[in-house]
Write a structure and sequence with these properties.
heterodimer; A: mainly beta; 7-stranded mixed beta sheet; 11 strands; about 0% helix; B: about 110 residues; mainly beta; 6-stranded mixed beta sheet; 4-stranded antiparallel beta sheet; about 45% strand
Chain lengths: ~120, ~110
């Protein structure tokens, strides 16, 4: 059974860079059938797609976040990562990592990790 | 870019049927698959419908999905409502290399 687990700091200061890693177990991140994505949810609000990566390194980002987002993959560790720069309080959210197909259909989710942006 | 618009909330009684709509702002709803996710408080979302009308194993057949090209919308229908169906529901679709979620619909079963 595929499992995804987010890890990283739960508190980030304004203007700094948010960094999260997703560790995949029970399956290979190098599977040719899937993409690996990040989705976030501000407290009490809806879901927002941040971006996705293919194991080869091809990336797709939400246009509204593209200038601040970098997603990378480390196939040797079966992990993929998110970096979001110049964060503000508006970036406070539960961040989920997920396995998706090419159309974004999300079949597996991590449990989510709350990241708070505050000084 | 496109947007997906859902009603903020719906409510219905146990045993009844409810339909949640998801209207696409631009581009054809039929051109890209629509997924539906259920999210209970404090939990990650789970898929109830994928590829417009397919149910993952384990999802009861009370859940069904459809699309309507005339209104450029997708719908999630839940029949025989149970109190356990009370949750937030999100539609999701894509366009080229961009994905989007609807704003979510809070379903109350009372």
């Amino acid at each position: 059974q595929l499992q995804l687990q987010e890890s990283g700091p739960g508190l980030v200061k304004p203007s700094e860079t948010l960094s999260l890693t997703c560790t995949v177990s029970g399956g290979s991140i190098s599977s040719s059938s899937y993409y690996w994505g990040w989705i976030r949810q501000p407290p009490g609000k809806g879901l927002e797609w941040i971006g996705s990566i293919y194991y080869s390194g091809s990336t797709y980002y939400n246009p509204s976040l593209k200038s601040r987002v970098t997603i990378s993959v480390d196939t040797s560790k079966n992990q993929f990562s998110l970096k979001l720069s110049s964060v503000t309080a508006a970036d406070t959210a539960v961040y989920y990592c997920a396995r998706q197909d090419e159309g974004g259909a999300t079949s597996d989710w991590g449990q989510g990790t709350l990241v708070t942006v505050s000084s | 870019n496109f947007m997906l618009t859902q009603p903020h909330s719906v409510s219905e009684s146990p045993g009844k049927t409810v339909t949640i709509s998801c209207t696409r702002s631009s581009g054809s709803i039929a051109s890209n698959y629509v997924q539906w996710y259920q999210q209970r408080p404090g939990s990650a979302p789970t898929t109830v419908i994928y590829e417009d009308n397919q149910r993952p194993s384990g999802v009861p057949d009370r859940f069904s999905g459809s699309i309507d090209s005339s209104s450029n919308s997708a719908s999630l229908t839940i029949s025989g409502l149970k109190t356990e169906d009370e949750a937030d529901y999100y539609c999701q679709s894509y366009d080229s290399s961009n994905q989007g979620f609807g704003g979510g619909t809070q379903l109350t079963v009372l």
